[in-house]
Specification:
The structure is a homodimer of 333-residue chains. Chain A is α/β, with parallel strands linked by helices and 333 residues long. In chain A, 32% of the residues lie in helices and 23% in strands. Chain A has 8 helices and 14 strands. Chain A is globular.
């Protein structure tokens, strides 16, 4: 296993120490239980927004804590759900009196633990709503998941809901917005190589030198099919067609197109993919009005990509364009 | 070879098409000769700043074109110098009447071609200065290089000089500033794995499963030594010690610490490295006052890191903190 780490069991703790040293202007880091909160939390009168999940998907979620996005993130061990005590402590830390929204990717452990945390928080008198993100069109059920998996769209939900909370919208409004974004966005991913979880010490799966996997999950969960390597343009078509036909998106729609790197994918390749993805969208009469290109939700060092489309309207565009100040995404500040 | 590309010979052109589609608000892209200029170029009365070099190091340089950083970037084929006609066309495109600075990484081909372009531009009556960046302490001479290689510090030179040009400083002042930054910054890198150049189709070098290379260049050029894998903390010490003893940095110095990912390195690992790098700096009495953490100057999908230290003063801090609006680096706008 080739990794720039010390002991596998110390990776997340040492990452948090690095984040704490690097970004004291943006976040505070708490340990045992581990969570990251924005430096000025709780923001009085603002809905607090929390997400979390297994580590190994950086910059998501810890890199998205800050003004205009998340109020807190709860990192679990690599590819392992955080625990209810992390989520409860984070919920209390960001409650500014307007309630707290939990943005939860649809994995069985995450959903269960966030539910327990919400119940505990409510017992203590806090107002909590949870929205589950399940945007992955690749498979219906999967390892770790009943129903569709929550993947790339989560980044967009966090940005858009973060802007809405910053505007002063209510907990119900922000939660409804998260559900709306979840209903309008779809994602599909693929991998050229596996990643290696530090404490496992060997690749999660084997993928021969001449094969790729279409529809894979962000933890290396099985996708739709394995096949011989194809060109970038063919890969884009294999990802875009199931996305477009799912909602379905239709001619005249305006979308945000998000081409994500899985961690080990050179940026040069993401732009090659983006070029083709725009072409495919336009062939369907779909207009790309905003974009995001880069490694925002990763699977450690996996080589591969995911494509997310989100149907936009004037409100979503305004919220997407709003200022954000985090380590992983920044504009206007 | 596992890559998300179409034909190897089309990679750079298709990447440029992707950039053109993705960022029309930031840049204009020209073809044959290929170069990227900021959308409002030439900016009247402002020193124009150009860099360039082989592709495969994204986001450098094309991702750094925009307000507050570069006016143009000239991308060569992967790991291959751009040609003088690209540099000449870019120089003319960004000349706003205050002269043009060429920021050149110290590789024989880049230096020669930028010199030719500067000569041609001067023949046409343009005012051009060139500054060669050579910050890599690993080796004295190398494949492709006489003297030290230009590596991570280039990103910082581009940001700082971009801010100075935006402030209205003269060509001589901006060029002197580039030389000053070059004199105050040092870098060293290492790799866990090789990268694969698309048209080569196989890894640039072989590195056994239990070995790493210390002091490697951004094209996979040989470094100082190969050795058995070590912990992240040991790697940081092996990179920091030659950097600190080179200038030498001394107790009381204030520095910017840049922990760079080589392309295939998970962000979680970069924070683990940053944590230790701060500790090593502090052990020497050196205070880290600014930082940059992420994949900014890459070697395709190589797994590895480089660490750059730049001694700061009040002027450099002000310029580092100034607004920048590019695809690859953004703040304050």
């Amino acid at each position: 296993m080739k990794k720039l780490i010390n002991k596998p069991e110390e990776v997340v703790k040492e990452e948090l120490q690095g984040i704490e040293l690097a970004h004291p202007d943006l976040v505070k880091v708490f340990y045992d239980p581990d969570f990251i909160v924005r430096v000025d939390a709780p923001v009085k009168g603002k809905v607090g927004i929390i997400s979390g999940g297994g580590s190994g998907h950086e910059p998501m979620h810890g890199g998205f804590v800050g003004k205009g996005m998340l109020d807190a993130a709860c990192p679990g061990a690599v590819f392992t759900s955080p625990t209810p005590d992390q989520m409860l402590a984070a919920t209390k830390a960001v409650d500014g009196g307007a309630g707290v929204l939990h943005i939860v990717k649809n994995y069985t452990g995450d959903v269960m633990n966030f539910e327990m945390a919400a119940d505990l928080a409510k017992e203590e008198g806090l107002e909590v709503e949870a929205v589950v993100i399940d945007d992955d069109v690749a498979v219906k059920d999967s390892l770790y998941t009943a129903g569709r998996r929550g993947v790339g769209l989560t980044v967009l939900v966090e940005k858009i809901c973060g802007a809405a909370a910053e505007e002063g919208r209510s907990l119900k409004e922000v939660a409804d917005l998260a559900r709306k974004v979840n209903s309008l966005g779809r994602t599909m991913g693929m991998a050229l190589t596996s990643c290696t979880v530090p404490h496992a010490g060997k690749p999660t799966f084997d993928l021969p030198e001449d094969e790729m996997e279409i529809g894979i999950g962000i933890h290396g969960e099985p996708g739709r099919k394995r096949m011989k390597l194809q060109s970038a343009d063919e890969v884009v078509e294999m990802l875009m067609d199931p996305i477009i036909s799912d909602i379905p998106y239709k001619s005249g729609d305006e979308v945000l197109l998000f081409v994500n790197g899985m961690g080990g994918t050179p940026l040069i390749e993401l732009y090659v993919l983006y070029r083709k993805a725009v072409e495919v969208a336009e062939k369907h009469g779909i207009k790309v009005v905003r974009n995001l290109i880069g490694p925002y939700i990763t699977s450690l060092e996996m080589a591969g990509t995911s494509i997310t489309m989100l149907k936009m309207d004037a409100d979503l565009i305004k919220l997407w364009d709003a200022p954000v100040l985090t380590a992983g995404m920044r504009k206007g500040i």
